[in-house]
Amino acid sequence: MELFGEDLVFRKDGDNLEIVVSGKSYKVDRVVRAFPQTQSEEYISFLDRFGHEVGLLESTDGMDKDSKTALLDHLKQVYFVPTIEEILSVETTGTTSKWTVVTDDGERVFQVLGRESLDGEKPPLIRVTDADGRRYQISNYWKLDKESRATILELLPDKILKWRLVAR
Predict the structure, then answer these.
(1) pLDDT tens profile 47-82
(2) How far apart (Å, rounded) are the C-alpha atoms in residues 118 and 104?
């Protein structure tokens, strides 16, 4: 269903999400951006609990102020990626590891399933995905303190090390 801002009301009550379109209410399980990097307020999809699209909002233009604010605040929470500033410990068991880190949003403890959960495609940035699918980032591996760098050295994507050699 194609949605237009002037016809849409977005509500969030705790964990419950709902959209109202022309007076008809729809329960929503997830809200996702089609283009989160380039068009953060356009092409927003509302999905039901089965992952089926309830509707696609082309633009937030025309939405009432409260609905737009609630929607954008919700999306900000969904797409927030904490930056890891210090790695306190990594305890490895088999291929999984338990990380204790300090982020720009406080201390976090999470599981990493393996080396492939660290994405080093854009050195010196490293993106880390935990076992629950939450994302974290290390904005510049080489600017971490010496102890933090040593703690994850064995898990480090090859491109990070190669980038350092080329950058010198």
Answers:
(1) 999 999 999 999 999 999 999 999 999 998 888 899
(2) 19
